[in-house]
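Consider this one:
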Amino acid sequence: MVQIMTTHDNDAFKPIATVDLAIFSMTPNGLSVLLARRANAPFAGVWALPGGWIHIDIDHDLETAARRVLKEKTGVEMPYLEQLQTVGNANRDPRGWSISVVYVALISSDDLAAGQGARSGEAQWWPIEGNGVDVHLAFDHALLLSDALTRIRKKVEYSTLPAHLLPSRFTLSELQSLYERLLGRKLDKSAFRKRVAEAGFLVPVEGEMRRASNRPAQVFRLKDAQSLVLFDRTL
C-alpha cells in the first residue's frame, strides 16, 4: 500500500486527489471526447476532461469514485471503463501537489442517442483531431487525452474494444466498419470475421436480422457488455 507522507499536519499541505476521465463515444463527427468547461479557478472557463475529488466517505475504491463522477457528468452508469494511469507532481495544479487517477470510458451510441453523455450545458462532445482536440485544455489534460488515445488505438489492433462504442445490437458489417474507421485502413472481410468468431465475444440475437445489400444480416450483441477480449494476433 502506498502511504503519502507530509511534513505538515495542516490539511492545506495534503495532496489534491482526484479522478479524471477520458470519455469517448462515436458521434456524427467520428470518435469524440466529452469535455467540461471549468466553472471555477484555476482555469475558469477553460475546457478540461471531466473529473472530481475522491470522496473518502462514499467512494469504496478508485473505480467507485470514477463511476460516480461518470454518472454525475454523463448520466451513464455502466459503460466500459478501465484505469489508464496515475499521475502526480507539484507542478500540474497551481493549487499545490496533485495526484490524479485517470480512467478511459467508452459510451455506446445507444446512450448517446438517448440524450445522455453530456447532461450539463457546460459539457460538450469534441471530435478527435490527430492526438487531441482543437481547443486548449486545462492542467495537463492535453497530455492525458493523448495518452488515452494512444491506449485506445493500440487496443483496436488486438482486442474487442471498439464494440463498446456501437449500439447494443449491431451487424458484423457495422462492427468491421467501426474498426476500419478507428484504424484508418480497410480490413479483409473473411479474415476479420474469422478473428471475431475465434474470439467468441458475440452472441447472435435470435430471430433478429437487418436488411443488407445482398441478403439479410444477422444481428449480434456483446456476450459481456463490460468485458474486453484479446485476439490471439493483431488485425
The longest strand covers residues 16-27.
